Amino acid sequence: MGQLKLRAANLLDISGIEQIYRDSVARFSEVPPPARLWGLVSQTLSFLLPLSQETLIYVAEDGGKVVGFVQASGQPLAISLPAKITALHVLNLCVANDVDEREVAPGLVEHLVEQAGNKGVHRLFVRIPLDDPLVATFRSEGFRQYATESVLYAEQPEALSAEPPAGLRGAGRKDDRRLYHLYRKVTPQGVAHLEAPTYKAWKALRAAPGQQEVVDRVEIVGWCRVHKSSAGRPHTLSFMALPESGLAEELADHAIVAADGQPAWSSLRHYDAHIVDALRGRGFLVLLTQALLVRDVTVTVPAAEQRLVPAFG
């Protein structure tokens, strides 16, 4: 391999990027479902398209050929650019099959970190399976693990009760402040400080669709969201709950019933063990465990002077 050239992607790179991405996704054909199902649904080619003003895509080029790419984006994806983006999530880091990943991937991550700092970004996040070889690459580039996340899946989840939790009602905008207080109660301080240290930052994370309900017993003690997917994809269940006796089980039953007992999955952190146990008792299996990594970025240009713009073409 010659001298790698690291640069922003452009429209002429689309075919090369897509081929590398397809080869990467093809690896999931070698593992049995439902792990393959999770991989195909959680990584979609639409992420590669420059629809978001928050997306950065950089490529590694060797002898005029694209041999790898890295992509990071603000969350949630949006067409319009917020006034200030200070955190990005690494969505893809892929290297061509015919090159050594160890020779290409570290340079791509290092280039992303440098360019993100130039654009006023303070922090980069990535979620990645614990057994993925790229974990070592991210760690070598200064990323540290701050949490783990289990992905649970059930083909035929079984609710043990159809009785809704006492105090269950629909969630409204008036509940946002109280839900933020619940988030701070159930989330370790170190994790909350990184992901949502303020109410405003927490609200930005809540753009996902779905039917939301709360368990209100003088104070809000639980929350669940059921997002019914289409095109044969599993429904997505999300939860927050205080570790009160029986509460996690009640919420799990209610979410399964609300999802019509159809295939579903849920992503839960290590500190949600009581909810994980409730789902496992209702037919869910742990597909994989992911590491949640973060790296603080040195900002080299004041954010006010250089807004984040698409690094794609």
CATH topology of the largest domain: Aminopeptidase
Q: Considering the protein shown, what is the CATH homologous superfamily of the largest domain?
A: Gcn5-related N-acetyltransferase (GNAT)
CATH class type of the largest domain: Alpha Beta
Shape: globular
Q: What structural category do the secondary elements indicate?
A: alpha+beta
Main β-sheet, spatial strand arrangement: 1-2-3-4-5-12-6-11-10-9-8-7
- The CATH architecture designation of the largest domain is 3-Layer(aba) Sandwich
The chain-level mean pLDDT equals 86
Total number of helices: 9
What is the N-to-C succession of helices and strands? EHHEEEHEHEEHHHEEEHEHE
Unreliable residue runs: 76-83
- Total number of distinct structural domains: 2
Quick structural overview:
The chain is of the alpha+beta class. The protein has helices at about 15-25, 35-40, 100-120, 135-140, 175-185, 190-195, 200-205, 245-260, 275-280, and strands spanning about 5-10, 55-60, 65-75, 85-95, 125-130, 145-155, 170, 210-215, 220-225, 235-240, 265-270, 285-295.
